[in-house]
Amino acid sequence: MKKVTTLALVLLTGATLAGTVSAEPPRGPQPERMVEHMSRQLDLTEDQQARMNTIFEEQGEKMRALHEETRQRIDGVLTKEQRAKAEELREERKEKWEARKDKMKERRDPR
């Protein structure tokens, strides 16, 4: 049982580090920024830029769906108490991320 719990927490941590599904704007690379960078480097046409945006957006949706599925599968392995503890850990990580995000924002825009 201890191995299953340890494995579940490792998978949960990995899935959480990959990003969480929420109403927040996406973390990490955003399609528009990626396309903008590629446009400068590869001199993409407007049509190519639009097609690249679509590709990146579809990929992001697939990744979020996979993350949610993984989280649900992990939660299915955990006991009620373990799920509650895992949710606490997710919230703690989210709060830490928000604090780091705010710090990074201040560094970039020190008004």
Q: Count the helices. How many?
A: 4
Share of helix, binned: over 70%
Question: Into how many domains do the coordinates divide?
Answer: 1
Radius of gyration: 18 Å
Number of strands: 0
Unreliable sequence segments = 19-23
Note the beta-strand portion.
under 5%
Overall spatial form: flat
Q: What structural class do you assign from the helix and strand content?
A: mainly alpha
Biggest pleated sheet? none
Taken in chain order, the helices and strands follow as HHHH
Q: Averaging pLDDT over every residue, what do you get?
A: 81
State the distance separating the first and last CA atoms: 52 Å
Describe, in plain words, how this protein is organized in 3D:
The structure is a single chain. By secondary structure, this protein is mainly alpha-helical. The chain has one domain. Helix content is 80%, strand content 0%. The protein contains 4 helices and no strands. It has helices at residues 2-17, 31-42, 46-77, 80-108. Helix 1 (2-17) packs parallel to helix 4. The protein is flat.
Can you describe this structure in just a few lines?
The chain has 111 residues and is an all-alpha fold. The chain has 4 helices and no strands. Helix 1 packs antiparallel against helix 3 and helix 2 runs antiparallel to helix 3 (46-77).
